[in-house]
């Protein structure tokens, strides 16, 4: 939006903007922020940044935890959710050194930028273009409790089928049956207007929306799909999308979650990532004579993704809840393989994409609880490894699986390779298979070690807590 401090200051004066909000990313992928009065933004801000204590953001310790944030003026946009007129910016983090400040190599945005540099250095392509699909739930109520004497959660929305018989409040009778929400219209689609307002807010923030609709899950599952863009740009926009969806819901006395599996026996929330490579303005993935119109380079890229699929899950599906989604029967992938128009394999090639410039495939296992900078960078690094080593997915036995993988016999299922069934398994895979991530200095080893340690601690805590299902199964034994 802006390229100089002078432009920002003039815009703020003209619009009577009082505050500037700087948003930074912690290791888990949450935005944090610090705010200054407009008058404090000057050239020194761009040179010396805004200092903060990086030890509270979860990264591996460095010699000194003092870091500085330097805003990216071009990312400026009005924040629509605050009372005081506020301009919002993202940017990059640097480690403070007497001899010169250096980009903090563990900072998510710096990892993504370095991955894009490594792609160009490899001369494989100039850019990676991606397009995530965002699935989430909008609810009217959420409560959860985790105490020694009580472990519980409760979710609710008027459109859920279990409310068909409720008599306490007004009941329209337009509930959505289990797994029957796909593209359903009002009056069943009670959040149609809210989704539209979310999309207008996204457009105002520079995020181009492709379409939005109700998703399969009856109790409030939604989808917003956006236009494709370059890797780091789309990681930025992923953060913006989650911020707008959550705040827009709260502003209308509702709530939104991107949890992969908030409801048992209902469709879960994925973040399918469409991808393609461009070199000298030409598509790398297109070949009219290739399988499903894809080039050998595209197949090698897919080969890298499939080879490293298990370890990728530690970054693209980084919660214990993630693996409750990756089970058969809910259009979520569970098998490592590729195919055309097949939603049961982790790589799906859309049959409707015909033009060379748009020819692509999608990785279906990621979900939006990931840190998007790490997840997108890891996807790129796996694909680059596949291309450099010419990993052919067909020769490796990963497809194409042009049939429903869920309907195979037990004997046939055993011949297939499955995704990890838990976060523990994914972390085991990442410990064994991470060299491809460190090539070119993209992922520092210290970052991966810290990530694994933090996730192991999460698992250890969650595993110690009694679960209601354990009472159902074992209380009377």
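Sequence proposed for the structure above (477 residues):
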């Amino acid at each position: 939006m802006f390229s100089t401090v002078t432009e920002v200051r003039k815009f703020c004066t003209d619009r009577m903007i009082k505050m500037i909000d700087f948003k930074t990313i912690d290791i888990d992928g949450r935005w944090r922020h610090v705010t200054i009065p407009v008058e404090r933004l000057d050239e020194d801000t761009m040179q010396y940044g805004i200092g903060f204590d990086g030890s509270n953001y979860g990264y591996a310790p460095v010699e000194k935890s003092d870091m500085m944030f330097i805003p990216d003026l071009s990312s400026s946009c009005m924040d629509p959710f605050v009372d005081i007129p506020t301009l919002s910016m993202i940017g990059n983090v640097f480690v403070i050194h007497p001899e010169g400040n250096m980009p903090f190599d563990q900072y998510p945005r710096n990892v993504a930028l370095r991955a894009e540099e490594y792609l160009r250095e490899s001369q494989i392509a100039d850019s990676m273009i991606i397009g995530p699909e965002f699935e989430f739930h909008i609810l009217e109520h959420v409560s959860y409790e985790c105490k020694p004497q009580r472990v519980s959660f409760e979710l609710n929305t008027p459109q859920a089928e279990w409310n068909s018989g409720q008599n306490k409040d007004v009941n329209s009778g337009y509930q959505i049956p289990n797994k029957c929400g796909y593209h359903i219209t009002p009056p069943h689609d009670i959040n149609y207007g809210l989704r539209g307002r979310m999309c207008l807010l996204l457009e105002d923030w520079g995020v181009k929306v492709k379409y939005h609709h109700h998703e399969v899950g009856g109790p409030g599952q939604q989808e917003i799909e956006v236009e494709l863009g370059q890797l780091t740009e789309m990681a930025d926009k992923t953060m913006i999308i989650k911020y707008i969806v959550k705040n827009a819901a709260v502003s209308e006395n509702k709530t939104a979650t991107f949890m992969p599996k908030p409801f048992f026996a209902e469709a879960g929330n994925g973040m399918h990532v469409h991808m393609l490579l461009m070199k000298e303005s030409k598509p790398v993935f297109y070949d009219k004579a290739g399988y499903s119109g894809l080039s050998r380079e595209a197949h090698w890229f897919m080969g890298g993704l499939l080879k490293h699929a298990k370890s990728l899950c530690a970054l693209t599906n980084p919660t214990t809840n993630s693996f409750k989604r990756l089970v058969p029967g809910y259009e979520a992938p569970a098998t490592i393989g590729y195919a055309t128009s097949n939603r049961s394999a982790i790589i799906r090639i859309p049959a409707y994409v015909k033009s060379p410039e748009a020819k692509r495939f999608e990785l279906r296992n990621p979900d939006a609880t990931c840190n998007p900078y790490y997840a997108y960078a890891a996807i790129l690094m796996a694909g680059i490894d596949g291309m450099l080593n010419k990993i052919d997915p067909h020769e490796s036995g990963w497809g194409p699986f042009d049939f429903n993988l869920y309907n195979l016999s037990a004997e046939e299922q055993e011949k297939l390779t499955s995704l990890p069934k838990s976060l523990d398994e994914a972390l085991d895979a990442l410990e064994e298979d991470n060299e491809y991530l460190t090539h070119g200095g993209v992922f520092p080893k210290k970052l991966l070690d810290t990530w694994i340690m933090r996730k192991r601690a999460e698992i250890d805590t969650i595993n110690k807590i009694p679960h209601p299902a354990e009472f159902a199964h074992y209380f009377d034994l």
